[in-house]
Design a protein that fits this description.
Elements (H helix, E strand, L loop, with lengths): L2 H5 L1 E2 L4 E10 L4 E8 L4 E7 L4 H13 L5 E7 L4 E8 L4 E7 L4 E7 L1 H13 L3 H7 L7 H11 L2
Parallel strand pairs: 1-8, 2-8
Antiparallel strand pairs: 2-3, 3-4, 5-6, 6-7, 7-8
């Protein structure tokens, strides 16, 4: 067993992903919530160091276009971090959310098309004005959202 595996615990079995939402908090903070069909919700807090919306959109684009079978990015929480890993299998996508704070790994499943739709819907629901007021480091990823919407036929 490697050092990282000896300290990392998976929480239950993979859950079917039902929704992804993004909530702006105080200046420079955002809560990312992943809701499962069984009622479980995982909320990850990210700081302005991360380009949260663009990172999620880029992962959705990568998996939906099959330009890669995997996508990974980091949500910085100061001082902790959460790694979001997406791995496409033949029929679906496994999302592994790993927190350095509590050393747990949470697993969700979806299809690449459904994951792209959930991310697109979650980002589209973010209030643009509030985003500009509280998230000044990264511009709203309007072009990425539009491109993903076109890909999905929205």
């Amino acid at each position: 067993m490697t050092e990282i595996n000896s300290h990392l615990r998976f929480e239950d079995v993979p859950r079917e992903l039902e929704a992804i939402s993004f909530a702006l908090d105080s200046c420079g903070w955002m809560d990312c919530s992943l809701a499962a069909s069984d009622g479980f919700t995982l909320t990850v807090r990210a700081s302005y160091v991360s380009d949260v919306l663009a990172d999620f959109l880029d992962a959705a684009w990568t998996l939906a276009t099959e330009s890669s079978r995997a996508a990974t990015f980091v949500l910085h929480g100061e001082p902790d971090a959460t790694i979001v890993g997406c791995l496409a299998t033949e029929n679906d996508v496994l999302l592994v959310i790993t927190s350095s704070e509590d050393r747990r790994a949470y697993r969700f499943t979806s299809t690449s098309g459904r994951l792209a739709r959930l991310i697109s819907d979650g980002v589209a629901a973010v209030d643009r004005g509030a985003y500009l007021d509280t998230w000044p480091t990264h511009p709203f990823p309007e072009e990425r959202l539009s491109n993903l919407g076109e890909l999905l036929g929205a």
